[in-house]
Structure formats: C-alpha cells, structure tokens
Amino acid sequence: MNILYIMFDQLRFDYLGCAGHPTLKTPHLDRLAARSIRFTNAYTQSPICGAARMSAYTGRYVSSHGAHWNGFPLRVGELTLGDHLRAGGVDCWLVGKTHMKADAKGMARLGLSPDSIIGARQADCGFDVWCRDDGLWAEGPAGRYDEKRSPYNEYLKQKGYAGDNPWADFANAGRDGDDIASGWFMRHADKPANIDEADSETPWLTTQAIEFMTATQGPWCAHVSYIKPHWPYIVPAPYNDMYGVDDIIPVNRDDRERDDPHPVHASFMNGRIGTTFSRDEVREKVIPVYMGLITQCDDQMGRLFRHLDETGQAEDTMIIVTSDHGDYLGDHWMGEKDLFHDPSVKVPLLVHDPRASADATRGTTSDALVEAIDVTATIIDAAGCEVPSHIVEGRSLMPYVNGVDHPAPRDYAISEYDYSSHGACQGLGVAPRDARLFMVATRDWKMIHCEGGFRPMLFDLRNDPRERIDLGADPAHADTRRRLYGMLHDWSLRMSQRVTVSDADIAARLARGGGTGVVLGIYDETEIDAALTARYRGKVPTAPGD
Amino acid sequence: MNILYIMFDQLRFDYLGCAGHPTLKTPHLDRLAARSIRFTNAYTQSPICGAARMSAYTGRYVSSHGAHWNGFPLRVGELTLGDHLRAGGVDCWLVGKTHMKADAKGMARLGLSPDSIIGARQADCGFDVWCRDDGLWAEGPAGRYDEKRSPYNEYLKQKGYAGDNPWADFANAGRDGDDIASGWFMRHADKPANIDEADSETPWLTTQAIEFMTATQGPWCAHVSYIKPHWPYIVPAPYNDMYGVDDIIPVNRDDRERDDPHPVHASFMNGRIGTTFSRDEVREKVIPVYMGLITQCDDQMGRLFRHLDETGQAEDTMIIVTSDHGDYLGDHWMGEKDLFHDPSVKVPLLVHDPRASADATRGTTSDALVEAIDVTATIIDAAGCEVPSHIVEGRSLMPYVNGVDHPAPRDYAISEYDYSSHGACQGLGVAPRDARLFMVATRDWKMIHCEGGFRPMLFDLRNDPRERIDLGADPAHADTRRRLYGMLHDWSLRMSQRVTVSDADIAARLARGGGTGVVLGIYDETEIDAALTARYRGKVPTAPGD
C-alpha cells in the first residue's frame, strides 16, 4: 500500500462542506470524507507553519524537537517520518512544501554535506525530494524571504511568464490596467490572478504529484504539501468571484473580547494583522477569495483522485488530508493564526484507508482529542512499520480507522506557540525565552498557560463553544484551572529525549541481569551463585617478582 | 590559562577534611580548598554515574540530553564541553573515565565513522582522548561489563601481572593464601590489594595526567577523571588499614525510616545493597577502606599539585575538583547511591582560579544552590569562551569565584533519577517510562516527586538536616509541597531543545524586520512605506501570448 499524506496550508478546520460549511463547495473532499473517518477535534502542535510542520514530520511536540518557529533549524539527527518509514522498507517522498530549515551549523559540525544522500535527507527533514516548493517567493529591500531555488518560478518562466519572479508578478497578482495589482495588498484580493488557471500553484503541484505517482514504484509515502489557501489571498478566474459576501459565515467576535482582553490576546488583536482583519471591508474582500482558493484546491483533489481511479491505484493508496493550522479571518478580532482559538489551532483531518479493515468507519466522524503528531504515528503504523514510542510522541489512530476497541490516545490535547520572533514579544516587553504559550484542551475546557508572568486564558467549550468569554481570571473557575494545570504539568514531565533507548531495550538489559560480573552488595562469596562469581575465585596468577 | 577538571567517582561531599570530616586525612585537597572557593550545596544532576556525567559534559539536565542511565547512549549531535571550548580555541582532553556510550545507531545513520576525528569526538562525548579508562573491567558468565580496551589492564600486563584481567585479579583483589580474595566480596575489603601501590589505579591515572601535561601545549581543559573511591572497595597497603572502626562517623539512620517507608525508598532499602549496607559488620569493614581509598586519592593530588608547582604551571592552571555523586555507606538503610539524601546527591566542589581576580574568595565557602551543570558553564566561561545559554542549562559560577555581586543562579536545585534499569522498577511494578524521580531542593526543603503514582517525599532541611523524617504525606506541609511542586513545574516547562537558535539570533531576526517582502495585513499600498513594496508595483511583465 502507498500513502498520500496531503497537507494544505492555513486551511481552517470548518472550511469544508463535510465539516458543515453552509456555502463552500468542496465536493471531492466531501466524497473522500464519505469513504474516510473524519476527526473533528484535531489540533495542530503549533499555530505557525514551521513549528507545526516539524512536529508533523518528527511526530514530536515542539518543545521536544526545538524548532519553535519558521526558519528555526531542526537539529541535525532529529529523527523524522522518513527515518521510521525507510527503516521498515517504505520510501518517503516530498512533493511540495515543508518549511524545513536545515541545521547548517550542526551538519557542518558533523561533516555532513547536503550533496550526500544522508546530508540531503538531513537538510530536507528526512524526505527524498521529488519536488520541493515552499511557496513563498516574496522579495523586499532586505532580499528574498526564501533563497532556495523556486521550481515553480522556473516552470512559469519556461511557460513564457516574463521577469525573474513570475510567482509575484503573475501567480500572486492581478492586473490594474498595465500595472501589477499585487495579492499582498488585500484590496486586490478579488481580482483574478493574472495567470492561466492551469499554471497557478495548486494545479502545478497536483501535476507534480501525478507525475511522481506515475514514475515511482511503491511502497511509498508521499507528502503532497500545498501552499494554498495560504496568503497571498488571490486566485485565478473563475475562483476569484465564485463566492460573494452572502456566502461568508458570520464573524465570531464579541465586543467583550476587546473590553478587557488578556494582554497577549490584546497585543495580537491590536497589531496590524488583527486591526486589518477586524475591518469588515477586509473580511468581505478576502474571505470569498479564501473560499475560492479552497474550491480550487478541491477541484485539484478531484483531478488527483481521478488519476488514482483511472490507474487502479485508488484501491492500494491510503489518503490522509489535513492542514498545518487554520486562519482567524477576523474571528476574535484576529487575522492569520498565532493563538489558540479553534479557527487557528484546529485542523481538518480525513483518514481514508482503502483496506476492508476500515470499512466499518467509512463516512463516520470521531471527536477524540487528536494531535497532529498522531498523524505521523498513524502513517508509520499504517505502513506496517514500527512506531518507536520512545521517539514518536504521537499515537497511531489506526484503531479508530479500524473501529476496534482502544483506549483514547489522551485526556487532553497540547499545542504550543513561541512568539519570540513576533513583534508582539517586543510589544509586551517579554524576554525571548518567556515568549511561550501552552494550550491544554479537553473536550470541555481550553486553557492557555503563558510564560512571562501573565495569567492564563480559559474557555468553557461546552457553554461558550465560540470561545468569546475568557474565564482565565474568574475566581469561580480556580479549580478548573488547577485541574488543567495538573494536566499541563503531567505533560511537561513527559520523557521526550530518551531517544537512543527503547522500553524493549531496557527490558532486554534487565533480562540480561547481573551476568557481566558486577556484583554489588555482596559481603561473602557464599551469598550468591558461584557461577556468577567464578571469575573472582581461584589461584592468584603470577605477579611481578614471583 | 589551562583547566584541570578533576572528577572523582562516588566521593561523598562530606568525606574531606575541609568539609568537616573529623578523622579522614585529605591534607592536599584541604590545602587546595584554602586557595579555592568551596561550594557546600552542590548537587549532582543524577545519583548515577552515566546520567550525571552526561550532564556534566553537556551542561544540560538529564531529561534534556536523554542519557538517563549507565550505558544509555548520548544522542549523536548533542553538544558537549569540547564543542563549546574548541569553538573558542581551547582544546578539551580526556584522561580517565567518562562512562560515555556512543550512539552507534545514530552515528551509522549519519555515516559517522568512529575512526574519523568527528566520529571519534562523537563517540567520546566531545573529548579528544589522551587516555580513556572507564575503570570497571568486571567479567561474568554473560561476558565483560565493558568491552572496550583497558589501557590500565595493558599497563599491568606489561608490568608483569599475569592473566588477562589483572584489574580483577590484582588491583581489585587481595589474597587469601594462594587464592584470589576479590574486592567484589566486601568481607575482603580490608585486605591489602595484591598490587604494588604505585601500580594501583589512582597513581596510574595520575601518571597519565602528568604525562599529558608534560606533552601538551595549552590552552587546554583536561578532564582528569578518577575511578576511585568507587567500588570495588579495596585498596593497597598502607591505605587498607590506615583507618579503623573508631574513625567512622556515626551512621545516619533511624528506625522510623523503616517503620513506614515511602514505597520507592523501601524498594531500595530492602534490596540486596540496602540490606547489606545496613549490617554494621559491612559498614565497619567497608568504610575504613573507602576512607583509605580517599586518602590515596589525596596523596595523588599532592603528587599532581607538586608537579604543577615544580613546572611553574600552577600559576597558569585552574583546578576544579568534584565528584559525579556520593555514596550512602549505610545511611538511611541504603548503600551505593540511587536516591536523593545528601550522602548520595551532594558532591564536593572546589574551584581554584589562580588569577588575582579570585583572591578575594580564596579559602571561603558558598552555600549557593549549585548544580553539576554549573561547573560546565564555569569552565567555558573561565576559558574565555561563550556560554551558549540556549544550549548549556548550567550557569557560570565565575561571579562567585571572583566575589562580585550577582544574582543567585537559581532558587531551587534539580536532580533526576531514572530507575527503569534497576531491579526496583520491576519490584515496584512500575512501567519503565514511569520509573523517574525528580528532586527539588531549596536551602530549607527537599522534595522528591515520583512518577508512577507515588506520593512525594519531603524533608525539612532546617529542622531535620539529617533527613530522617519524610513529611511527604503530612497534611501539615501541604502548602510547602504545593510551593515546591510549583518550582518543579516551572522547571519542567523550561526551554531545553531550542538549541539551533540563540536569543541573539532572534534579536537579529527581529532587527532585520519585514524587509524580505512578506507584508501581512496590508489592505492598501498606501498603508506602508513604498520602499518596502516597490517590488510589488510597476508594469506587468510579458505574459504568454502577449
């Protein structure tokens, strides 16, 4: 069996037809959901691309792998999905985005060249690269956001789009007469991107995925990782005006959230992104385009699934669809991601297993508390490889997929955020190492602990499912906060770094027992089996001068 | 300046004349103490050789580096003292014991050969090896405890001691007529080891250290790491009968400790080592020999310090003396180490800085809460290298050495112990990953948190300095336990894995700001500086078909 591990970027958990969006059209993903189990309580490990993805690729919490933010290198030697799959004879390929930053210092220290197979896998987060495109080819006075080669830009140039950065000038811009109308400026969002739809990013990456599947023998896991619906919010026709203001779901915000906000929420709310997305004209311009980007993604899913059907690969291919995090889109007076309200921290998660063993759960949903790192364990498990529980902190969801009895993977979900690289850190006057937030969520409650001396945030998910009332300072809920802190503390003492020794290794050591001649606490030979101490009996050998 | 980083193995904090032992003779170390600052509240990071040493060599907590127990490999790529010193142009050499186990799997995965300089340093915990001797050449039916080459055994063979393991037959055995009287059996402890004193382990390693200093150009840090006074408890004449029963300090134990013991304490207390060391005949046989081993170590210190004086190196050599952990010697009904009573978890720590900057503190003591990982930071700092605070979790003690104003390094000390490889784990029916203990100590209190569902232990260090009354279940001290748990939880959320990015790196990123063309939350070009967005203005380049 092969595994398509499909990840979208910044796709909200509730922006799918199958997830209940009233106007958004995602028929192909809805059809997949009818043949999958859909998880409705799936949390990203961090509401920021880089950290979330390093967790997804290592199966470890952010504070376990240490790559807390975009562009923070994943330390050399950290084990990845690719290591665990290849150990079981399954290849692990990349088609698209990882946001991986190589630990160049660490590689140099260990003499690893990016030109070697070992070095290349270290530099690319354990993947073998069919096509890597991190999809953010922005340029400013300080240079490019991403200095890597852009295969997508090369494709566009070869197709005849002029200039050195057609990603910026065509794929992510409309036109205003003869002028570029850049998608970075949201007033242009509803303009059609100035590009043939077939040449835009999502169809291009889908073509890469189809070419990969055509050319590559299995068993493989392919991480098909799309850039969209991530900003810049702009999309080619017909998707640019497919949705209108009437198709937008009501904004979820409340004046009470601004009256006496938690300082951390306030610092993001009052930043440029928060204030911009709090303007209705911005939401009304951007959200229909965000929806168009999603429907374009869905149409490309249709193309991909059709290819699987037509080539007979469908019955032999597991399909997982998720996202790295969500998008506030103005909810809670926020834009982008950063904090832990559902629109930001929850992700869609579909698991389609073609095998008969999964028939019982097709079309069902589970509200189990799932974390992104569980997907890593699920892929390793589904591929028939061993999930090393001393390294991978996620838990396989295959018991859910197969509908068999099993203990819940956990009683609470954790997500983390290090905002030391965000302006809010300076704004709050917090030291970089204190700019860390930890979410603890049960089915009933969500608490956010803030390092740096701030009070926690607390939301009652049963009675305030829209998370509008922060009970973090409410004396009536001190016991609940204490209970959730207990969970956070249990988690924080987890064993996360004993990665060179498994529980099985320890059992084997104990079984071997004291047979290596170290006999402690023995006063007299007669106290233990002579066989154990034979080496310490007998005649004295010759000494110097004897 | 060069640095002699001297470590003894299993030397109790209170078994030095300068530390107040009434009968034990350590004149050379006492003289060093008169020229040093001595820390009276220094804690090992773990009361077990391997874990404690991996913390000493990385400057990181046990649960940060993950090598929890003897023989648990230190993960490849983990940074060590050697990495930090060499980055500053200072060599870092090993003369003696590390207890390092190479991460062979990790090295193979990264293609590192132990024959290469990089691979050899990975395999030897970051040291360049002058002489490595882990000093435990035991043998049993299951083979050798240590399969490495034994330079000490080679030395003894070349001197004419016959057999393939003269370490076992001579250096660590007496004779009983023509028979071997092995030091593993403590009834033989007081017999003189059947070896010329000059050929025994401690003098041999001292000779290695002197040869190193004679042959090697500085600046260097040399880890001179002795095996003794670690068991087997046996020593050559005249040290074997230098002390008698009257020289033993009173045992620190109390029947109340056995009446209603904490289950974890009970499991160790009732094990073979605990029960053996609870027999007075054992203590009276072993402790005088343990004291003799220490005086032999002290005489060798005299030899080493004389060499420094005679060669003029003394004024240019910093000397640090410590141990990896202590030895219960029957206190609290325990032998060996394993738990967190002072005799086990506290270590001696002398820091002698020959520079005038340290004159103010010579002969003084400090009762600051010091951890073994502080020594790592102190060495890096004293050598004039940068202490990378995002990697090294210890704090430099140089402000204490120089007697300048400074904040205390911490309000509480942490020590950890993973007993999953100890029989007590099975005895208690604890899962391997739950067999973990965490000590939190302030000047007034010491609490031990136990994973696996046990209550904590608690000792009132002011009113019960001998730690005989476990208040872990006393309702009167619930607030104290809550306060100490608060400290443990603060510690457990520390940032320990963001090792690829420093706070300075983050500051530089923020200073660079948004100059790379990613402009978020901008509705209209006019909202920001045109220079930042110039790349997104201007005429549309040629498109296909234009």
How would you describe this protein?
The structure is a homodimer of 546-residue chains. The first copy, chain A, has 546 residues and is of the alpha/beta class. Among the domains of chain A are: 348 residues, Alkaline Phosphatase, subunit A, CATH 3.40.720; 34 residues, no CATH class. Chain A is 32% helix and 15% strand. Chain A has 20 helices and 18 strands. In chain A, the strands form five sheets. An eight-stranded mixed sheet of chain A has the order 5-4-10-1-11-12-2-13, sandwiched between helices. A four-stranded antiparallel sheet of chain A has the order 15-16-17-18, covered by helices on one side. In chain A, strands 3-14 form a two-stranded parallel sheet. In chain A, helix 2 packs parallel to helix 15 and helix 9 packs parallel to helix 13. The longest helix of chain A has 31 residues. The radius of gyration of chain A is 26 Å and the shape is globular. The N and C termini of chain A lie far apart (72 Å). The relative contact order of chain A is 0.15.
